[in-house]
Amino acid sequence: MSASTGTAAVTNLIARYAELVDTGDFAGVGDLFANAVFIGGGGSAEGGAAVERMLRDTVIRYEDGTPRTHHVTTNIAVEIDESAGTATARSYVTVFQALPDLPLQPIAAGRYQDRFEYHDGTWRFAERRVQINLTGDLRHHLRGRPLG
């Protein structure tokens, strides 16, 4: 494992999370967090089944099976510790949403603080902390408690 290979793998995991949430594949998100904890403003969930359940319980999905969102993750900074087989990443997230009766708009902006581990030849999430600093109209996105 090299630092550049690890950086690419970790960046791909960050992107994969956004893709899975935006396509409504909460089981896939659960797979990403099978050995990890997800911590946000609404509490924490540990392990794939708990993360999947948290998303199903809080995120509204529409007729097409998606939450009608688009997560944009930027300012990604990855630090690899090759000898320990661990990595950390910091990034910004902006979530956009559009519905037939809701014009495209940003609904949330914040930060991800992630930890990763290298296990059996692959990188995986160990922890994601979500801190949402700015919110817009979340009525069409969340049921009850916030994720970040």
Give a quick summary of the entry.
Strand 3 and strand 4 (86-99) form a beta hairpin. The protein is an alpha+beta fold and 148 residues long.
Would you kindly provide a written description of the structure presented here, covering whatever features stand out?
The protein has 148 residues and is an alpha+beta fold. It has a single domain, classed as Nuclear Transport Factor 2, Chain: A. It has helices at residues 3-22, 26-32, 48-58, and strands at residues 37-40, 43-46, 69-81, 86-99, 102-119, 122-135. It has a six-stranded mixed beta sheet with strand order 2-1-6-5-4-3. Helix 1 (3-22) runs antiparallel to helix 2 and helix 2 (26-32) runs antiparallel to helix 3 (48-58). It is globular. The relative contact order is 0.22.
Largest sheet: 6 strands, mixed
The total of helices stands at 3
What is the CATH C-level name?
Answer: Alpha Beta
CATH architecture: Roll
Poorly predicted parts:
none
Integer tally of domains = 1
Which strand-content bin applies to the residues? over 45%
- Summarize the amount of helix as a percent range: 25-40%
Structural class: alpha+beta
Going across the biggest sheet, name each strand in turn.
Answer: 2-1-6-5-4-3
What spatial form do the alpha-carbon principal axes imply? globular
The CA-CA distance between the termini, in Å, is 32 Å
Radius of gyration: 15 Å
Mean pLDDT: 95
The SSE order reads: HHEEHEEEE
Number of strands: 6
Task: Describe this protein with a few key phrases.
3 helices, alpha+beta, Nuclear Transport Factor 2, Chain: A, single chain
